[in-house]
Amino acid sequence: MDESGDFSRIYERGMSLVEEGNVSLDCDDFRPSSLESNTDCCRRRSVGQMMLGPRRVIRRGRSIYAPTPSTTFGPKACLKKVPASQIMHVTDPSSQLLTWKVNALSVLVIKKIYDESVIEPFKALVTYLSKEKNLVIFVEAGVQKEESILNDDHFTSIRNKMKTFKEGDDITDKIDFIVCLGGDGTLLYASSLFQEGSVPPVMAFSLGSLGFLTPFEFDNYQDSINAVLKGNSSVTLRSRLNSHIYTDDNIPNNNHNYDHDSIFGTEHKLPDPPNLKVKFQVLNEVVIDRGPSPYLSNLDLYLDNRHITTVQGDGLIISTPTGSTAYAAAAGASMIHPNVPAIMITPICPHSLSFRPIIIPAGVELKIMVPPDARHTAWVSHDGRSRQEIHKGWAVRITTSIYPVACVCRRDQISDWFDSLAECLHWNVRQRQKGFTKTCAINNGKSESESD
Fold first, then answer.
1. Do 161 and 130 form a contact (C-beta atoms < 8 A)?
2. Which member of 59, 124, 240, 254 has the lowest number of beta carbons within 10 Å of its beta carbon?
3. How far is CA 273 from the centre of its chain?
4. What is the DSSP string of 236-294?
5. Which one is catalytic: 28, 184, 383, 416?
6. What is the 3-state secondary structure (H, E, C) of 162-231?
7. Active site residue 314
8. Residue 42 main-chain phi, psi, to 5 deg
């Protein structure tokens, strides 16, 4: 039997049925590799699996793998394409290089608030980006009103060129890349501004208190920015979590925000269901706790609609690998490299010594419910913001988002992370054990007579 000939005939017949609309494919199970288009993915994987015939529908089983992240960041940035030989099901971090489809024209500059030490670096950076790079500068509306900026006559011409926005404005298609001046909070805030789609690539300068997520030093900011605008910079794709709060247990089976049935990757925005109370994308973690209540939290935890356990304690932390070095680490969780596709579940002061943190695949769906017999309500916060009370019978649905945050690396994905562990968290920092002296080494394990 000529297997190659049979495959070709099946392929041609199958794709003709797809194009004629006689076969519907649910593409969530046919995951493309890291930089493969949805179209190529489905053509490659579906032909041998689909059922040929009029209006036959293929439904997927649930996958343990994370949803394939979007490889475009804002209107102009994307991941650089790599040869097919380098494409892996689990993306090699070294292949994640930022490139530009067209030259960047706009930049969002976010600076740390209430810190006068950031004012002068902010002015220098914005002046350079405006005069030397001819970029359109976006800043928060409150920045232009700060006294240190208003009272600087030399900065007036630059200030008048800056465009402003308020939190809640849709700036998704206006920003080509982001520059953060401050600590980790500025990066979390930048992520929170892009809730409905992809996040432009982020370059973070360490001008804050900790700086675990801010690898760049400001001293060489011009060279660093030039390298990023030139392209081919290493980026770390930091996954985010979708958090949806529902007022009852009637939760859609699939992600209701977008219709992913199209094999050509076209996203169709669907209306929110009436029982959806809050939706948010987080970079660090979703925290469900007891709030001001004096009673233990009583939370039912489900994984892919299967009841796993009932949480009794102060609460629960659901974190990304990026968030594993934040609140979760303080609560005793392991630290996960951001390239690992995973979700961390960490109890907060559980009323059981055997309830340890666990790591689960990034592709699963979590549901946390406040049971009807709970003594009190619970509270949810998203990256420390948008705190919301959840009542008895309410549910929180958490999945991995397809829109990660592309953080530009100073060196590479591995070196930057371990540098941050050592410099910011002092991971495994201790005085090195002293070796034996030469005399002790010779006499080790021998009597004095034997030594003589």
1. yes
2. 59
3. 25
4. EEE--EEEEEESSS---SS-SSEE---TT---EE-PPPTTEEEEEEESSEEEEE-TT-S
5. 184
6. CEEECCCCCCCCCCCEEEEEECHHHHHHHHHCCCCCCCCCEEEEECCCCCCCCCECHHHHHHHHHHHHHC
7. no
8. -70, -35
Burial class (CB in 10 A: 0-12, 13-18, 19+), 451: exposed
The structure tokens 């209006």 sit at 55
| Residue 7 clears pLDDT 50, i.e. is over it | no
Please report where in the chains the tokens 């090699």 appear, as a residue: 92
Query: CA 323 to CA 283: how far, in whole Å?
Result: 7
Q: How far are the Cα atoms of 113, 149, 176, 185, 437 from residue 110, in angstroms, in the given order?
A: 9, 15, 14, 10, 55
Chain CA centroid to CA 132, Å? 32
> What is the residue whose two structure tokens read 């995951």?
31
Q: Distance between CA atoms of 394 and 369, rounded to whole angstroms? A: 6
Instruction: Say if strands 106-111 and 136-140 run parallel, antiparallel, or are unpaired.
Output: parallel
* C-alpha distances out from residue 441 to 203, 434, 450, Å: 51, 12, 14
Q: For residue 275, is pLDDT > 50? A: yes
Strand partners, 164: 139
Residue 289 has pLDDT above 90, yes or no: yes
Express each pLDDT in 203-245 by its tens digit.
Answer: 999 998 888 999 999 999 999 999 999 998 999 999 999 999 9
Of 205, 147, 212, which is closest to residue 181 (Cα–Cα)? 205
pLDDT of residue 221: 94
Nearest partner of 285 among 423, 210, 363, 386, judged by Cα: 386
* Amino acid identity, position 235: V
Dig out the tokens for 154 from the structure.
């030399």
**Confidence (pLDDT) at 126:** 95
CA-CA distance, 328 to 351, in Å (whole number)? 17
